[in-house]
Write a structure and sequence with these properties.
alpha/beta, Rossmann fold, 2 domains, 6-stranded mixed β-sheet, 3-stranded antiparallel β-sheet, 8 helices
Length: 261
Amino acid sequence: MTDQTVISAKELSLTFETNDGPVHALKDVTLTVEKGDFVSFIGPSGCGKTTFLRCMADLEHPTGGTITVNGVSPDAARKSRAYGYVFQAAGLYPWRTIGGNIRLPLEIMGYPKAEQDQRVARVLDLVDLAGFEKKFPWQLSGGMQQRASIARALAFDADILLMDEPFGALDEIVRDHLNEQLLKLWDRTDKTICFVTHSIPEAVYLSTKIVVMSPRPGRITDVIESPLPRDRPLDIRDTPEFIEIAHRVRDGLRAGHSDAI
């Protein structure tokens, strides 16, 4: 582990006990995420992508192996507010304004009112929602609601952003736009991002590292270090380099399926 290591998993396993018997969600997962990485996790439904993310966030507890976040346990990282978490649904409270939703974790953490105001204004600007603070969630499109959700996760300035398929329910045009915005946000803030997706183009477009996972029990079948430049216009998806990485991801997914049969 280096000084730059943010997340380190070693032979991580997680088995859920159910009425129908044990469910092996993760098996022997070993991975290192470095500071400033944008890591995407891709694999079939039920392969443990979200479970792995939830282990990082101390929302699930491994039954084998180890995982550290910033060199400490996920529990200690959670208590030190090391990460923000963005769920699949925006999860905004309909009775609170957009500003009020973003302010909520700051209120819970006891930030002074003046600092809350400053932080809300800053993150609204970061996600291109300046001027929408007094709107309610129902007055915003799905894409704007998800941007507000990202702003809420950024409000207390955690170094790590955990994102569980945040754009999966959005149409392709909106998704493309938010992918572009997320890359700009990552570039400006230098956060470390772990991002769950089902989309091969999304994983390749966003990531410095793509982690391909197999069907349950979730194992890592490939880790692809992206050679693409940090500055990525959308039309980079038409280049031979992009298409080659996408093929490798697809091959890794196929190999995982074959091994599972």
